Amino acid sequence: MSIFTDIKAEVSQRCISNGLAANEAFCEIITEKLKDAGVIDEFSPCHFDQTIDGRRIKIDGYAISDDLSKLELFISSYDSDVEDLSVKKIEIKKIRQLQKLADEFYQYALLIRSNSYNEESELFEIINYIKQSAKKLEFLRVHILGDGYYTENYNVYSSNRKGMGYTYTCELWDANSLKTVFSDEGFVENNIEIDVNKFSKAIPCFKTSSDKSIETYLASFPGHFIAEIYNKYEVRLMENNVRVFLQSTGKVNKGIKKTIAEEPEKFISYNNGLSVTVSDIEFNEKDKNRDFYTISKLIGLQIVNGGQTTATIRESYYKDEEVENVRKLNVPVKINLIKQKDEKDALISFISRYANTQNGIKNTDIQSNNSYHIQMEGKSREIRGPFGYWFYERLRGGYNLAASKSSSPKEFKKNNPKTRLLTKEYVSLMYYCLKGLPYLSVKGPQNLSMEFLKDISKDFKKRGELTVPSDHFIKIVSAYILFQACMKIQKEIGIKTGRKIETINQYNPFASYYTVSYIFNHSRYIFNYNYLFDAGEISEDLTSNLQIWISKIRESMLSGAESIKSDYREYFKKDTCWENVKKLKLAFIDKKTKEFEKEEVKTPKADSPVDKCMEIKKSVWQRMINYLVEKNNKKKSVNFERDFAVCKNMYDLAAKNWKKKPPESIAILAIRVFDSYSSESEIDL
Hints:
By secondary structure, the chain is of the alpha+beta class. It has 29 helices and 22 strands. The strands form six sheets. Strands 7, 8, 9, 10, 11, 12, 13 and 14 form an eight-stranded mixed beta sheet that branches.
């Protein structure tokens, strides 16, 4: 249970260094780990524990899907002393009490009148979401975070809870259950053990091939078995490529649903089935017969092909209540037992790639293997920052895998701290911040995954080949350094002002996206991202400015939502929120902030309009474009489209190092626009 000892030690550290209460620090650490492992997508803290009208109301956090169909509630009880690192047994009475409190909180949120609680209350948003989702809810999941260990697995679920029409699951995360997700060293791994006998009758299979690296079996899984194990473990069963594909589709297939509803017995004839990998497989000894077996246990199961089939069967079983029909169907399954652990990642990648190609999913749908991510991984090994290289995690768990394969995992983590870990998810978020689209970043990496690859292709694909410039990697890293600084500053603001940190944390990432975007896309000042990359951290001057700027940007975002009585998060996803933030005139405390450069607008020395245009830097043409757009937003200009097109033409030619000269007639217009820009744009921030 060493991983749990490490967790408790970290609780102690955060209590001392961050001023957190033990229970708050514990929730923060456990949910961070669950997010790293892909068990949950997000967590919004909301620590509340009071007695109201003689009734105890307690909750520690929540997460809700954008369509309000899935709600997750988190409840925790950290009973240990801060310095106590021992891992004690949790009594069943305690677990049931926490589950009951979470259930009662849900009912409390549904029943309480909207006008009976203050909009400033930390409960306001979670109660509001619960009320909004009441008629749309399909899945309610309760996560109990326990500070010890329970002797058995604790998992409760119901397909149609008390006739309410939603699936209910309650799962305990204690020292034992965390071991199904993490190794003792803290590395993410899949140790889920599925006892077939608890879900189904014996599942027959036969061996088709075997070599030193992989064994393959063919089996037929009952429909209800697939529905129930996916309902229990969800995306933890999904290899990351399938997880991305599920996000890019409607998740359910009308053809599959029709077969389940009308001809379930023919499902095995119509459907291609699943392709899965396992780290181990156990058989019933008495049923072994040459190459024919019955499965008793599946360990480390990952679905690498068939995610849509799996999700559709689960929905038919629980949501559509096609219980009897799902019980009638069988699904063909190819089981791949990975025998050589050091080849696991490569084998799974090949299995996933070829299996998905056969089913019509293009290789570009497999995000980890996209050329962009492969090249970015290469850049991370070539381009060194002041404190070392950045680790680009192209595959989920790649950082932990690299650490485990190193001669000294502790030394690896020391030389490659997580502060220099760059994941695909954050890269996509920073990409949209750089483009001046922070409202897209708010939607989250999973919702952006496929659109991101399309946009990257538009930016970097020339003559059929995608080439990522080194400058792009430096920009992304610089944006991420700035983002991390914004997050840190906001947490410190929460402590200094005496406000409870959870009320600040809720919107920290969104305010950070907007701040990064504001800084990188200002119309009159250039942010020197090369300087920031070389420095590795923001200067004290910029820190002082950001302490003021972030507060003003955050206030603009919140007040904008309140002015139209909109849900905050939904408003942050709108371009109108960004337009309001861009209008802010944020002044420097000290004009000598190292990360900013005043735009150079010196009159070109050359005589001819063509030569004058070619003397102007690409970055200046980009600033001119931004300036024209901002000017037109304030007051419509009859010449905007012409001037914009001219500057865009110059920018494109400059980006190609002026391999082609601009026509003189266009160059004359461009210089006129430049002269206007030079005289009008000298306005302080």
